[in-house]
Amino acid sequence: MVGLIKVSGLNLDLTQRDNWVAVIGSRKASPEELKTAHSFAYNLARHGYIVVSGLAEGIDAAAHKGAIAGNGKTIAIVNTPIEQDIYPWKNRSLAEEIRNKGCIIHPYATKAVERNERGLSQFSKRLIERDRLLAALCPKIVTVKNEGVIEGGTRYGMSYGKVYDQNVFRLDNEMNLQKDPEVKEGKIWWDMEIDIDEKMRSFSFV
Fold first, then answer.
1. Which strands, in side-by-side order, build the sheet including 177-179?
2. Which pairing describes strands 5-9 and 102-106: parallel, antiparallel, or unpaired?
3. I need a labelling partner for 101 at 20 to 30 A (CA). Which of 60, 65, 120, 160 fits?
4. Residue 2 confidence (pLDDT)
């Protein structure tokens, strides 16, 4: 069992999450979708919401940047321990900005050991488990995708958002929010490293 979640950055009250909004989406989003994510997160931040995402390339990074540009707070949930370099490495400077404007949540205490099971390494599994934790923590989850079924890694955050009875939406490039959009189901079939219920109440700032 992994111990307390380590958190780097501002000492935010992570038990009060009514104003948390997850903004997620594809790493290979279109330029229009990236602009949409940035603008949406900017406006959320201006209205006092905390933007939560996963610090991945694409929509995640655009959302974090939008919140920072809106002079608001943003939180990243990552799959690497606090002592390990941020993944992806190209977002390390963005990670520092996030620490100055919010915080980074590190659910894992140790570096992933590469082992394969049905084609997924422990590192990749942690990315999916991270999405499930995000879904458990955020009362509102918004996927930025202009059209089509929501699939890829994003589907895990959306699928578990529905499991946890959160409000889930799709945001298109016209800034239209669609509640309960079509999502390709994503479920975790392995024994998770983290206890979601425990992680929702056990944060340790460093």
1. 177-179, 167-171, 140-144, 20-25, 50-53, 74-77, 102-106, 5-9, 203-205
2. antiparallel
3. 160
4. 44
Task: Report the C-alpha gap between 142 and 171 in whole angstroms.
Answer: 7
Nearest one of 71, 65, 63, 75 to 19, comparing CA atoms: 75
* Predicted confidence pLDDT, tens digits, the chain (206 residues): 345 688 999 989 998 999 999 999 999 999 999 999 999 999 999 999 999 999 999 999 999 999 999 999 999 999 999 999 999 999 999 999 999 999 999 998 888 876 555 567 888 899 999 999 999 999 999 999 999 899 888 999 999 999 999 999 999 999 999 999 888 888 877 777 777 666 555 666 65
The answer to whether residue 136 is domain-embedded is: yes
Exposed/middle/buried for residue 175 (C-beta within 10 Å: 0-12, 13-18, 19+): exposed
DSSP secondary structure code for residue 89 in this structure: G
Question: Does any domain span residue 20?
Answer: no
Give the pair of three-digit tokens for residue 147. Answer: 């059209």
Domain count for the chain:
1
- Name which of 33, 20, 60, 12 is nearest 164 in CA terms: 20
Question: Quick check: is 21 in a domain?
Answer: no
Longest dimension (CA), the chain: 44
Identify whether 90 is part of a domain: yes
